[in-house]
Design goal:
single chain, 1075 residues, alpha+beta, ten-stranded mixed beta sheet, nine-stranded mixed beta sheet, 28 strands, 49% helix, calmodulin-binding, P_typ_ATPase_HD_dom
Length: 1075
């Protein structure tokens, strides 16, 4: 393949543009039901259409790893029922409570629980499930409930093994019963559902009965048992391969469900699995988190929850600790933050019941699967036609007396041949025809995708990438551009404050508390301690542990060095209202009330944005000083200077506020907007987050010392445009300062101000977008897709969800990513590292390349086997028997897929252009290789079939015909073994490179050779073979080995750049147009 930088000037694939993006004029794409470029968000009718069009012999196996459309409908119906049931229970409870109030009836106090806790499981589950606020208040509210559960609302539970054990015993664990995976015998049963195998089993039974009747028990059972054994072997090997795949998918599904989250135990925040949560746990909640269990809100600020996953209503519900404190498992935090007390886990929650009743799906089909079903259908139709021709010709020749027996006499003589013999012969003819169908219809071809995907997904886990959606694996191989975050992806995510400016001085070093007056330090650390979602834990030994986002940890660590006592500050003063940081406004604030009733409103955020709201700065005498124009310019220059050195700039400011103006009503307080004008600047800090030293980017393309990949990297960050520029230069996204001009370097607000047409015009030139909002990222993704790009996007925040959903491949961050972002993504990058993104690209390209290797290998066998059998019927017989063809099918289908579909990725893959979504599955290179090998095999084996006895000098030897047919069978199989090596490297001369590293490939080759020797030398009666001497073995090996130098010669033959299929498309389009 040729590749060059110029291909990105207009579109990623030249003229091969995406129909769905509205860029193609070739309407014939829509004619094929198998032409689906993306199954992500594909209409159900489109998915149903290709299923109906596919030629399928074993539906249960073929569609095992596709979306079960009926089950999906049943799941939605069940969800609606459960939601309606839950709503009805709550409505009934509210009606009962209202009636009680009207009639003056008071409910009886709840009965105390037994065991180690003051409340029992049934009672607490009832309160939580029915959202019974009255019952909660009777217990003394959240504080009273925590006492009954022996939970400290500040420090959480003790969390030792004994405590955890008691809580699980009393209230259950946060798990739910899952449906057991299919057993091995279920896979055996499904593999035996193949229509052709069923026919062969029936034929084997008929052959066995007729054989015993005509030839006696001693010899009559050979043919029937041989076929039955061969069929059984195919079934067992197929079932074993499928069973291993299913185990891999089960393990990956377990990983997807195993969410890691923080809880507060014994005064410190610890990270645990969602399965380890117990009733009584205190869990902090932030924007984007999934509520991991049922619970009640302890405290929160502007907390809003999306309950659509449980209620079915896309309505954001605001929560408070008095009127609406109940939180349902499985819901998402849409805004604000807070802490919750866990009251129900596992099957004692509605979410747990739902998960227990809904079986795990397999994620749906992939575009490559659909296309391979189309290929398999086409080949199957050809195979059925050939089998029908063979059946017709053999039957006609038989009844016309042209089919000769072993003694040279006609097998059928009208009026003389017994009916039993005729029936036996016809069964054999039908068996051969059906076996041709088995070989011709590549039932395993679409399943080779799931085989290579299962292998790739397991290996990608080791490379720190968890695949949530199967199709993302292969789509990543087509990616032409990656829109990447900066923080933690291109940088190390190891942030430290390295520079600090106050209104009156530059602090050097930045954590020198002696340079700051105590009152100044006091107001500064008060804002840092309250205006954060992080926390500080100090152990009895004095060890300090800081948790939170990397930016929060950096600022908290800096404040600790300035003398901040986190716990003391949080206990002395209280947060009245909170405005959580969000990526749209780039800042967050908090109103803090001190013991003396003074109120300070603290703000922290992007330096130039917070500075823009400042009208004063605090001087060394702790007095607010008017922000003059010169001082503002001086501070802006300081920000630009830090940003130019790739520092993240954060400003900290505050203002006084009158306590009597703060709303006292909880509803009004939740809607109160924190004042953000007339701020007093306290400090501007520069935070260093070093670029990853191994970041594989050069001149905006992915590369390393081993490869140069034509995959463009675009950095989309919320940071200052100067910081973005500095990091881009350091990472290699920008080659030099001369590149740092519009539109290559652009600010988010500028990009969003353009019209759609203008955005489409410049989107391909953009390399860096600074100060961008999540909506800017979405607009960029949409523009790039309209230009025909296959776009991968990285994101970690809740607001990144639309861009992750819109992108062809959404990549969320495993460490910093929210649960909302992860749920919308296709792949989770577990270490937040750009190198892991590059590895995902390698695996994506490997999936596509491995499938192409398998297709080339399988089609060569298909073509050769069909042509040999069709050409040979002129002699009245086929050289390959049913048992032999079943063995060839096993090599081709299951063993071939295992050997070739599990090839590890190589750097050579990254030197290629991205695989186009419209690129044909069978390339011109593959057609060339296939034609060369198939023609060679067909020619040699047909010559042997018609002239083999004389060529092999068998004229006067006994069993000459059987020896000749055995040589044909043996040579044919050995040709496939040699050709398997050729298929490893379709476009490279060195076919042995890395072969010893693929232990599975070497193992399967060895197994195939050993089994072939056993079949020829020891199973002659079953396989219709005869022992060969060493000369015949050498001849067979010699015939097979010629395929290696022949492959080298074939690769020297040039192929046209335009795909063969394109000529047919254009001609068909012209015919349609003229019609």
């Amino acid at each position: 393949m040729s590749g060059g930088q110029g291909q990105f000037n207009n579109s990623p694939r030249g003229e091969d543009k995406d129909v769905e993006a509205g860029t193609s004029s070739f309407t014939e794409y829509e004619e094929s039901p198998f032409d689906i470029t993306s199954t992500k968000n594909a209409p159900v009718e489109r998915l149903r259409r290709w299923r109906q069009a596919a030629l399928v012999l074993n539906a249960s196996r073929r569609f095992r790893y596709t979306l079960d459309l009926k089950r999906e409908e049943d799941k939605k119906r069940m969800l609606r029922k459960m939601r309606a049931h839950a709503q009805a229970i709550r409505a009934a409870h509210l009606f009962k409570a209202a009636a009680s109030r009207v009639n003056g009836i008071t409910s009886s106090p709840p009965s105390p629980g037994g065991g180690d806790f003051g409340i029992g499981q049934e009672q607490i589950v009832s309160i939580s499930r029915d959202q019974n606020i009255g019952a909660l208040q009777e217990l003394g509210g959240v504080k009273g409930l925590s006492g009954l559960l022996k939970t400290n609302l500040e420090k959480g539970i003790h969390g030792d093994d004994d405590d955890i054990s008691k809580r699980k015993s009393a209230f259950g664990s946060n798990t739910y019963p899952q449906k057991k995976g299919r057993s091995f015998w279920r896979f055996v049963w499904e593999a035996s559902q193949d229509l052709t195998l069923i026919i062969l089993i029936v034929a084997a039974a008929a052959s066995l009965a007729l054989g015993i009747k005509t030839e006696g028990i001693e010899k009559g059972w050979y043919d029937g048992i041989s076929i039955a054994f061969a069929v059984l072997l195919v079934i067992v090997v197929t079932a074993t391969s499928d069973y291993r795949q299913s185990l891999q998918f089960q393990n990956l599904n377990e990983e997807k469900r195993n969410i890691r989250l923080e809880v507060t135990r014994d005064g410190r925040r610890v990270e645990i699995s969602i399965y380890d949560i117990v009733v009584g746990d205190i869990i902090p909640l932030n924007i984007g988190d999934q509520v991991p269990a049922d619970g009640v809100l302890v405290a929160g600020h502007s907390l809003a929850v999306d309950e659509s996953s449980m209620t079915g209503e896309s309505k954001i519900v605001h929560k408070n600790s008095t009127k609406n404190p109940f939180l349902m498992s499985g819901c998402k935090v849409a805004d604000g933050h807070g802490t919750m007390l866990v009251t129900g886990v596992g099957v004692n929650t509605e979410w747990g019941l739902l998960m227990a009743s809904v079986s795990e799906d397999n994620g749906g089909e992939t575009p490559l699967q659909v296309r391979l079903n189309g290929v398999a259908t086409f080949i199957g139709i050809v195979g059925l036609t050939v089998a029908g021709v063979v059946l017709f010709v053999l039957v006609v020749r038989y009844f016309t007396g042209h089919t000769k027996g072993a003694n040279g006499a006609p097998q059928f003589v009208g009026g003389h041949t017994k009916f039993d013999h005729v029936l036996d012969d016809l069964v054999k003819i039908i068996t051969v025809a059906v076996t041709i169908v088995v070989v011709a219809v590549p039932e395993g071809l679409p399943l080779a995708v799931t085989l290579t995907l299962a292998y790739s997904m397991r290996k990608m886990m080791a490379d720190k990438a968890l695949v949530r959606r199967l199709s993302a694996c292969e789509t990543m191989g087509s990616a032409t551009t990656i829109c990447s975050d900066k923080t933690g992806t291109l940088t190390l995510n190891e942030m430290t404050v390295v520079e600090c400016y106050t209104g009156f001085q530059k602090m050097d070093p930045p954590d020198s508390s002696s340079k700051l007056p105590p009152p100044f330090t006091s107001i500064l650390v008060e804002g840092i301690a309250h205006n954060t979602t992080g926390s500080v834990f100090r152990s009895e030994s004095g060890e300090v542990q800081v948790s939170g986002s990397p930016t929060e940890r950096a600022i908290l660590n800096w404040a600790i060095k300035l003398g901040m006592n986190f716990d003391a500050l949080r206990s002395e003063s209280s947060a009245v209202h909170f405005f959580p940081f969000n990526s749209e406004q780039k800042r967050g604030g908090v109103a803090v009330k001190s013991p003396d009733s003074t109120v300070h409103v603290h703000w922290k955020g992007a330096a130039e944005i917070v500075l823009g709201s400042c009208t004063h700065y605090m001087d060394e005498n702790e007095s607010p000083v008017d922000m003059s124009g010169d001082k503002m310019a001086e501070l802006k220059n300081a920000i630009n200077d830090m940003a130019a050195r790739s520092l993240r700039c954060v400003a900290i400011a505050f203002r006084n506020f009158e306590a009597d103006k703060i709303p006292t009503d909880e509803d009004q307080l939740s809607r109160w907007v924190l004042p953000e004008d007339e701020l007093v600047l306290l400090a501007i800090v520069g935070i260093k987050d070093p670029c990853r030293p191994d970041c594989s980017v050069f001149h905006g393309r992915v590369q390393s010392s081993n490869f140069h990949c034509w995959l463009q990297v675009r950095m989309v960050t919320g940071d200052n445009i100067q910081t973005a520029k500095a990091i881009a230069l350091e990472c290699g996204i920008l080659a030099s300062d001369s590149d740092a001009s519009e539109p290559t370097l652009i600010e988010g607000k500028v990009f969003r101000s353009y019209s759609e047409a203008e955005r489409d015009g410049i989107c391909e030139e953009i390399s860096v977008m600074g100060r961008s909002s999540p909506n800017d990222k979405l607009l960029l993704v949409q523009s790039l897709k309209r230009k025909g790009h296959v776009v991968a996007v990285t994101g970690d925040g809740t607001n990144d969800a639309p861009a992750l959903h819109e992108a062809d491949i959404g990549l969320s961050m495993g460490i910093q990513g929210t649960e909302v972002a992860k749920e919308k993504s296709d792949i989770i990058i577990l270490d937040d590292n750009f190198e892991s993104v590059v590895k995902v690209v390698r695996w994506g390209r490997s999936v596509y390349a491995n499938i192409q290797k398998f297709i080339q290998f399988q089609l060569t066998v298909n073509v050769a086997a069909l042509v040999i059998n069709v050409a040979a019927i002129s002699s009245g017989d086929v050289p390959l028997t049913a048992v032999q063809l079943l063995w060839v099918n096993l090599i081709m289908d299951t063993l071939g897929a295992l050997a070739l579909a599990t090839e590890p990725p190589t750097d050579h893959l990254m030197d290629r252009d991205p695989v186009g979504r419209r690129e044909p599955l069978i390339t011109n290179i593959m057609w060339r290789n296939l034609f060369v090998q198939a023609m060679y095999q067909v020619t040699v084996l047909l010559v042997l079939n018609f002239r083999g006895i004389s060529i092999l000098h068998l004229d006067h030897k006994p069993n000459a015909e059987r020896v000749k047919n055995t040589v044909i069978f043996n040579a044919f199989v050995i040709c496939q073994i040699f050709n398997e090596f050729n298929a490893r490297k379709p476009d490279e001369f060195n076919i042995f490179q890395g072969v010893l590293r693929n232990h599975l490939f070497v193992g399967i080759i060895c197994i195939t050779i050993v089994l072939q020797v056993v079949i020829v030398e020891f199973l002659g009666t079953f396989a219709s073979t005869i022992k060969l001497d060493w000369e015949m073995w050498l001849i067979c090996i010699g015939i097979g080995s010629i395929s290696w130098p022949l492959a080298v010669i074939g690769k020297c033959i040039p192929v046209p750049e335009t795909p063969v299929s394109q000529y047919f498309r254009i001609n068909r389009w012209r015919r349609n147009s003229s019609g």
